[in-house]
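Here comes just one.
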Amino acid sequence: MSKSSEEKSENVFDSAVSKEERYAKGKELRKTIPRSCHEEWKPDKERKDPVEILIGTSVGRVESLIPIRYSRMMQSPFSFYRGAAAIMASDLAQTKDTGIYLQLCGDCHLMNFGGFATPERKLVFDINDFDETFPGPWEWDVKRLAASFAIAGRWKKFSDKMCKEFAWNVADSYKRHLFDYSKLSALQIWYADIDLAELIEKGDDEEIKSFQQKRIKKAAEYTAHEKEFAKMTYQEGPRARIKDDPPLIYHPGGKEGEQILKDAEIVHKRYIESLSDDKKVLLNRYTLHDIAIKVVGVGSVGTLCGISLLMSATAEPIFLQFKEARKSVLENNVKVKGKYSHQGERIVMGQKIMQSASDMFLGWTNDDKNRFFYIRQLRDAKVKPVLEIMKSDNMNDYAKACGWALARAHARTGDPSLLSGYLGQNDEFADAIAKFSILYADQNEADYDKMLQAIKEGRLPVSEEL
């Protein structure tokens, strides 16, 4: 189990201690927390009902959108897993960990990685979702990521042997790259990124490589705001308006809609205040023209999310995405207190700490109803993984890439020498994580079946999306 928050103070990076000493300290941890213990998963007798956890996480969401959330989760055990971060956080709190805390992604599954453009217009590969980011045991991110490959592999009808290999490659890549980062200075780690084009070039599958290279070329040439403007808007008098596409994009009607637009002006001004002065100068050249609710993802469905359209005096558009920031699912499952009372600030700062480069418009805000939000560009040359076309070799390559990206993020927020000392150079940790991932894939399927039963019983509402 996790150590107390007082004991965790010793995990703070101490530059006065050599890399060799920190590596040795990590190695010493193996005596009390063997690497093999990470293979263990057996539900506790007092394990919380997964359906009750889901119901709890729906409290406070937009009631009319909750059925869409469960409809998306019931599509497969993998889609269920994507929306069940709270269930796994509760489970991981019952597992052993080394007591080494750092900034976690919190919802570290394979669909939350991908390519995107940095402010300098370079395409990089990295983690791209931080709604649940919070300090916690580093093992939790590794376990959730590796298990996601086992679960997605089963969804794609790969054998358990192959699914275990995917999970193994996540942990092995994480271990190998953490060792590489442990040799670098803190500044070198901070400068490090993963070039998306170079990453794709390393693949052996020429067909997939060609497909991905075309996607990169398209992403690099993509002028998102202008193309989205032509596709998503229409003119209404002097103002441009976002087209409705219910139930996924819509303007609330009546007094509710009028109030949301009034609130949006206040929220937008507060968002501008969270930005650096140079970004304020830029965005102050734009005015808010319209705002619409937009249903996104799986785990985020039902939270208040949407898009806003900004226009300059010369009719140049910018689309921003706002997402409601709720308390991290990790917060009640770890023994440390969060630094930020503003949930939007928590997400933004966690993202800036972990990512090699973050969206230039990333900021936070809140309304007068004690709801928190964070804001970023709607799309910016994003390259998402296409699981449907991946063969086993592609899945293994992608597992290695995700493990690498997670190692880079953890090397920024924690002590790579300490972690590398614990992980060592052999396969013991990767073997353990691979075994855990298969066991947890079984657990996830059992929980998925419980959700389906709850839907049949009418405990969870569902609806068909148009």
Q: What stands out?
A: The chain has two domains: 17-220+384-456, 222-377. The longest strand covers residues 286-294. DSSP finds 17 helices and twelve strands in the chain. The first helix runs from residue 19 to 29.
